[in-house]
Amino acid sequence: MNTIDLNLLLVLDVLLTENSVARAARRLGLTPSALSRSLARLRASTGDPLLVRAGRDLVPTPLALELRPKVRALVEEAHCVLVPSTTLDLLSLERTFTIRANDGFLDTFGARVIQRIGEAAPNVKLRFAPKSDKNVAWLRDGLIDLDIGVVGNTAPELRIQALFQDHFIGVVRKDHPLVQCPITPESYAAYRHISVSRRGERAGPIDEALARHEIQRNVSVTVPGFLAALSLAAHSDLIANVPAFQTRRLREGMHSFKLPVATPKLTVSQIWHPRLENDLSHRWLRSCLRSVCSKDEVL
To answer: Is 298 contained in some domain?
Structure first.
């Protein structure tokens, strides 16, 4: 099979635009003799003279006129492939982004994210995936575009950007007995608690903080999400321990209080795979989430 020199496509495109060997040579930074040799190769390859002399000018043959838009399109497509794009047309962007996040994040930010993206890029669709674990394979395999959450033992190659900080608070029903007395480590630990853990773990930072006071709480229920924890606490004497910022609407109608022990703050981040680092539409998506997730002070 004969090897095709794809550089000849660029030469042909410029020749069919300029209709002049001299002008085409100047545009390509070649000598007229070098360009003439390239034209000879093009004629041999196509079996057509392509450009013929008419007085002092060159005019395209019928085949050249037929090839002109095809060659132009090929050159433009190659340029898009090999040269990084620097502009993004949001109005014509058609893409579906998959974001994995928990129910607290969706309740707090979901509507604002959807509105922000819909106003700028009406043809972009969002798909929110359930956050059942922290498995990085979702990002590595391209099943999701962004993962939202607290960074744990993640893969070193993943990209991470902090969105906001949160902290744990306690939440009980409005007429809970705990509301009637000062909340101390002892009174707080005297009631049964709900632990939120996708892996079913009962102990965490709150237990470590209580241990410094030589106090142990009774974690009698473990659930996978904050919505479930708040729902149970609303109809029992159980205490739910949830992040304040991400649950402020979910816990409406309930009594919220600061924990009587100090616990570390939570940094919620957006995480993505490095193959999407320079993708313009993905960079725009990340900037939208970063802008929307501006934190107000809450209990």
So the answer is: no
Look up tokens 């902090």; give the residue: 162
**101 and 29 in one domain?**
no
Residue 153 pLDDT > 70: no
* Residue 258: CATH number of its domain: 3.40.190.10
- 190 and 220 co-located in one domain: yes
> How many CB atoms neighbour CB 212 within 10 A?
10
Question: What digits encode the pLDDT tens for the residues 46-85?
Answer: 999 999 988 777 899 999 999 988 898 888 777 767 766 6
Q: Are residues 39 and 101 in the same domain?
A: no
In a domain, 89, yes or no: no
What's the domain count of the chain? 3
Expressed as residue numbers, the domain containing 62 is: 7-82
Q: Global pTM? A: 0.69
Round to whole Å and give the CA distance between 247 and 142. 29
Q: Indicate whether 254 and 278 sit together in one domain.
A: no
- Is there a single domain that holds both residue 140 and residue 277? yes
Lowest mean pLDDT among 12-16, 96-100, 186-190: 12-16
Place of tokens 């609303």: 234
What would the DSSP string read from start to end of 217-257? -EEEEEESSHHHHHHHHTTSSPEEEEETGGGTTTTTTSEEE
Is the distance from CB of 280 to CB of 85 less than 8 angstroms? yes
Distance CA 251, CA 242 (A): 9
**Nearest residue to 155 via CA among 271, 286, 245, 66:** 271
pLDDT band at 1 (very low <50, low <70, confident <90, very high): very low
Q: How far is CA 270 from CA 150, 211, 244, 274, in A?
A: 9, 32, 19, 13
